[in-house]
Amino acid sequence: MTQKDSGLSRRVLLRAPAVGAAAAGLAVLSGQSPASAMATPPTVYDVTTWRHSTNPAITCYTDIGALINDIIADIKTRQPNQSSKPGAVIYIPPGDYPLKTRVTVDVSYLTIRGDGHGFASSSIRYNAGDTWSWHEIWPGGSRIRVENTDGKSEAFLVSRSGDPRLSSVVFDNFCLDGLSFTPNQNAYTNGKIGIRVDTANDAFRIERMGFVYLERALIVRDADALSVRGNFIAECGSCVELIGSGQASKVTDNHIGAGHIGYSPPQHKDDLYGVVHLRGDGNMVTGNLFAYDVAPAKITPSAPNPPSSWSPPDTTTTCPTTAWSATSRRTSSCSMGAHRARR
């Protein structure tokens, strides 16, 4: 049975099959006996009050990864019936939590939720010199420090074999902080991955998150009806990678800014390569303006003329360089409305 912290909101407590007097009160309101309510498996877990099942030395303040793995094991133990698996919420209050052990998510209907994406620019701090007078120097909110001392790359690996595919897993409103890059703080390399979804999945949501200083922030394979919305994903080598097959997915209303080694622009291609490429069938990009301003001295090949006419290759829809700006800088931009990729 989970132990609830007194600081949790009344709403969270009422959503949980709570313990003690709260459970008895809910039982009276619902017509259940108090004994029946006490027997109900918990579905809301607070990382600050959960006690590890085998090692009391493991807490959210020593290794939140190992603790969350223990919570997931408890969920599977308490929900063995294939006809009734409601899943659970794992709540991460604001605070600093080291993640030394990779979390493996292999259950559907799991929400891992914090109370603050906590994004802050680590690049500015690392390049600012003396910061002794600053009010704060690290990201905040519900901040997970991705230390990965277990030798694994990912903070969270979502993966399950067999049928059906995983459904309705949610990562919401907390921060994944990769802490530093090597060999220097502008290298954008550290081998750390925020979230990797490595098997087929349906109706996943990654929303209101903060990703910072990770070599690869988010990788999702074989996504169906994925929503990546309202996140701050910046100062990462690569920001969002959707790989394998997929359909009916959207990446909307995010702040995305990658470093110089990844797949987000700049791509280190010449300027005739374009800005956006879509590969595959049935893609649609609508209502967007993609723009990248290139200084004259950096245009490659040297001073090419914008193409007077253009059509996409057989397998790729490309947003080309199309115009010269009034400041003699060339702007790579296009507005794509309901534009479908051709094969």
From TrEMBL:
Start-end of Low complexity biased regions: 311-333
Region (Disordered): 303-343
InterPro entries (alphabetical): Pectin_lyas_fold (IPR012334), Pectin_lyase_fold/virulence (IPR011050), TAT_signal (IPR006311)
Transmembrane spans: none
Gene3D superfamilies listed in its UniProt record: Single-stranded right-handed beta-helix, Pectin lyase-like (2.160.20.10)
Signal peptide coordinates: 1-39
Domain of life: Bacteria
CDD domains, alphabetized: IFTase
Keyword list, A-Z: Signal
Protein name as it appears in the record: Pectate lyase-like protein
Naturally occurring in which organism (per UniProt): Nonomuraea polychroma
